[in-house]
Design goal:
Blueprint lengths: L2 H17 L4 H16 L4 H4 L3 H5 L6 H13 L3 H8 L5 H5 L6 H11 L4 H9 L10 H18 L3 E2 H18 L4 E6 H5 L3 E2 L1 E7 L3 H9 L4 E7 L3 E6 L4 E7 L4 H9 L2 H13 L2 E4 L2 E4 L5 E2 L4 H7 L15 H6 L14 E5 L10 H10 L4 E4 L14 H17 L4 E9 L10 H4 L4 E5 L8 H12 L6 E2 L21 H11 L2 E5 L9 H9 L4 E4 L11 H10 L13 H9 L5 H5 L2
Parallel strand pairs: 4-7, 11-12, 12-13, 13-14, 14-15, 15-16, 16-17
Antiparallel strand pairs: 1-3, 2-4, 5-6, 6-7, 8-9, 9-10
């Protein structure tokens, strides 16, 4: 039983108590416990024997602490099981499907006998589900689309989940075998693909069999798919497959290139090698005529032998990168160290988890020179959005904190809802008090393409809107849910960015990565400029900037494409410039 599983139990309890009509303070207590368990840095099971230690956690009282103890000791919770027994089987499964709320799930279970995703799918196809109250044909079709989308994604893992695991495994390997060298992540994870099927880890060592044996015997391994002297393939507890290969140092360059992909990039490199009388594989380059093998210590050496400069992994997707490299025109891709500010951050004034001060401290620790606190606008009632009056107090708090934090520029901001007609939550007078306005779609996501496009364009034409946040609203599949993107004409939107002076956000949240890489690639071609933001709701979310930067690199962005690479004085000058003149300012 880990923190995520404990969180899931409390979240389910909150939902079921809500259906039973329990007072809202009771359901909120369990919802809050679920959030705390999901985000707590310490394994709750490891401290569960100490009731006082549990109760010291803010938001965890005696009743919740006792339930955590029971879960830790037995892997069961009698209260939870009794509660489940009062509802139809499969109800909680239905609630995992995007678009189905508690009441609809209950009616589907009781009236139609739906108890699984499969029976739900059949009911929709038969035209039965749409007849339930407040459902209708269009909603039923959207739910069916979500089901099929989740099925397609169920064997993939978010980069934000897979990369930290890969980093940890590499670090564990370094500590266990100090003599091992060239330890590296490979495959789609190294290229920064938004979801990955499995992990590839490579290293060099004079004792390969010792490493592969250790790797296959790690505590978190649940299944060994294969183990030999130079490679091992295992499945971790979370279902992620990890493949380890150990090679001699002299062939590491070709090995890393071969196993980093992409497939088509590799095919194109092999074709180039063939035109030079060479054969490229994971061991190196072989002279076809003589049969002599050339080995390479680094990837750069392989590229050089093929007459090319080093091509960054994020660019190896067959989008013309080899032709660009051959012409000596590869871009100098943006790096995390180029980012100077974060312009989309939440605090506990709305739906964030910590006070503004804690976000500021972490931002300074990360070397940020400026930050915008962009708590939600009033339309996001479920996110504790700020009324006009609370926004004024929020701005006053920013002024107060600026005096306490002189080493970081704190900008007044808001993530403002774009209403269904394109208007914004705040009027012009209120918007004029803000330095940064991130305008985002959070509702009415099923609007038709033309309506949604016009809706966002209307917001972009507002002189106070700095950027459009997470344009497509999509959520990546995290093992529980996903959300398909809205239907919007991105070509029109990206072209309008330059015309209106609006920035396009690259949202670094590991569940979003929105804009995705192909959108960034195209938006850049159409002249759009970007902000890379974290959308962080707690200090631990601020380092996720690296994921947004990875998406920007996959979209071939350089520093001049991303406005928050500017030093603070230049950035402030940018946002103080009349909006339609801002893009021209960047060309000076």
């Amino acid at each position: 039983m880990d923190n995520a599983q404990i969180s899931r139990v409390f979240s389910d309890i909150a939902t079921l108590l809500q259906l039973e009509g329990e007072p809202i303070f009771k359901t909120r207590a369990y919802s809050r416990a679920a959030e705390i368990a999901a985000n707590h840095p310490v394994d709750l099971v490891s401290i569960a024997s100490d009731l006082d230690a549990l109760k010291e956690i803010p938001g965890i009282g005696n009743a919740i602490s006792l339930k955590i103890q029971e879960l830790a000791e037995t892997d069961h919770l009698q209260f939870y099981e009794d509660l489940q027994g009062r509802f139809p089987a499969g109800l909680l499964t239905l609630l995992e499907v995007p678009g189905i709320g508690p009441k609809t799930a209950l009616r589907a279970s009781e009236d139609l006998g739906i108890f699984s995703v499969e029976t739900l799918e059949r009911s929709i196809e038969a035209g039965e589900f749409e007849k339930l109250p407040r459902v209708g044909k269009k909603n039923a079709e959207n739910i069916l689309r979500h089901i099929r989308s989740q099925r397609r994604q169920s064997d993939r893992h978010m980069l934000g989940m897979a990369l930290p695991i890969a980093d940890r495994l590499c670090e564990t390997l370094r500590r266990a075998f100090p003599s091992a060298s060239n330890i590296s992540i490979a495959g789609s994870t190294r290229r920064g693909v938004e979801t990955v099927g499995d992990l590839d880890i490579l290293c060099t060592s004079d004792s390969p069999s010792e490493i592969t044996h250790w790797f296959a015997s790690m505590d978190e391994v649940t299944d060994i798919l294969g183990q030999g002297d130079t490679k091992a393939s295992v499945v971790l507890r979370n279902g992620l497959q990890v493949d380890l290969r150990v090679a001699p140092a002299e062939s590491f360059g070709a090995l890393l290139l071969y196993f980093s992909g992409s497939k088509q990039h590799g095919i194109n490199l092999r074709s180039r090698a063939q035109s030079m009388g060479l054969s490229l594989n994971e061991y190196g380059l072989t002279n076809v005529e003589s049969g002599q093998l050339e080995s390479f210590l680094t990837e750069a050496a392989v590229y050089e032998r093929l007459g090319l400069p080093y091509i960054p992994p994020e660019m190896r997707e067959d989008r013309g990168e080899i032709q660009l490299a051959d012409a000596g025109e590869l871009p100098t891709l943006i790096e995390v160290g180029d980012i100077r500010g974060d312009l989309h951050v939440h605090s506990n004034w709305s739906d964030g988890r910590t006070p503004i001060e804690e976000m500021l401290v972490e931002a300074q620790n990360l070397g940020r020179g400026y930050i915008a606190i962009t708590d939600h606008s009033s339309g996001r009632g479920v996110a504790n959005g700020l009324s006009d009056e609370r926004l004024i107090l929020h701005n006053e708090e920013i002024d107060r904190l600026q005096a306490e934090f002189p080493d970081i520029r704190i900008l007044k901001g808001s993530e403002v809802d774009i209403r269904s007609n394109g208007s914004l939550d705040y009027d012009e007078e209120i918007l004029s008090t803000l330095d940064i306005v991130i305008a985002s779609v959070h509702s009415a996501m099923s609007q038709e393409r033309s309506v949604m496009t016009e809706r966002v364009l209307t917001a972009m034409n507002n002189p106070h809107v700095t950027a459009i946040g997470h344009l497509t609203t999509r959520l990546l599949f995290d093992g529980i849910r996903s959300r398909d993107p809205i239907d919007i004409d991105t070509e029109v939107i990206f072209a309008a960015a330059s015309e209106t002076g609006t920035l396009m956000e690259i949202n670094s949240s590991t569940k979003r990565l929105d804009l995705k890489d192909t959108h960034i690639f195209r938006a850049r071609q159409l002249g759009a400029k970007f902000l890379i933001n974290t959308d962080a709701h707690r200090p631990s979310g601020l380092p996720d900037m690296r994921f947004g930067v990875t998406m920007a690199r996959r979209g071939w962005c350089e520093t001049h494409h991303v406005v928050n690479t500017l030093p603070v004085d230049q950035f402030v000058r940018f946002i103080e410039t009349p909006k339609k003149q801002r893009y021209a300012l960047l060309e000076e």
